[in-house]
Amino acid sequence: MVCNCCVRILSMALVKNGIQVDQIRLGKADISYDPNQHNMDTINSILQENGMELVISHEHKIVEQIKTAVIELIHQMNNVDSIVQKSEYLVGKLGLSYQQLSKIFSRHESITLERFIILNKIERIKELIDQDEFTLSEIAFMMDYSSVQYLSSQFHKITGLSVSEYKRNPENHKNPLHSLY
Length: 181
Prior knowledge:
This protein folds into two domains: 4-49, no CATH class; 58-179, Orthogonal Bundle (Arc Repressor Mutant, subunit A), CATH 1.10.10.60. Helices cover 59% and strands 6% of the residues. It is built from nine helices and two strands; from the N terminus they run αββαααααααα. A two-stranded antiparallel sheet has the order 1-2. A hairpin with a 2-residue loop joins β1 (20-25) and β2 (28-32). α3 (58-76) packs across α4 (86-94), α3 packs across α5 (98-108) and α3 runs parallel beside α6.
C-alpha cells in the first residue's frame, strides 16, 4: 500500500470479505480471520484484485518500507525547507546504509531507488503546481532542487513536458503513485 487511498480500498475489501481489520496503515495491515473460512490464498487474492501483493521475504518487506518512507517524506511531510536529505531519512528510518537500501530496492524493482525518488518528487511537484499556492521557486526549494532551472529540466526529462505545458493541461499527465514505474 503506497497511499492513503490504497489503505481505504484494502480495508473495505477485507471487511467486505469478512476479514476483521485490527489496524491498517501505509505498507502494513494487521488482520484477524477465521482460518476455517479464509486462508492465505484468499487474502492474497483480495490483495491482487486491488493491485497489491502480500510481502513475505525480508527484502520485500524492506522494499515496501522504502516505498512507504519515500512517500511519507515527499508526499506527506513535503520535506519542508529541505531539512532532511532523502538518504539520511531512509537510513534513519530503516536502519540500513543507503547503499544497502539501494541495492535491495534495485534487486526487487524494475528501477533504481534514486529514480523512484525522482518520480515521486515529480508527482508531488505536479500536485503543488495544481494547488497554485506556491511559486515555482518555492516548490523548487521545498522539493530540494538547487534551482528552478534544475527542477524544470528534470520535470521535462521525466514528463516530456515543460512546466508551462503541464500547467495548460494537467489532467492528462498525472500518475497514481502505485504505477510510477
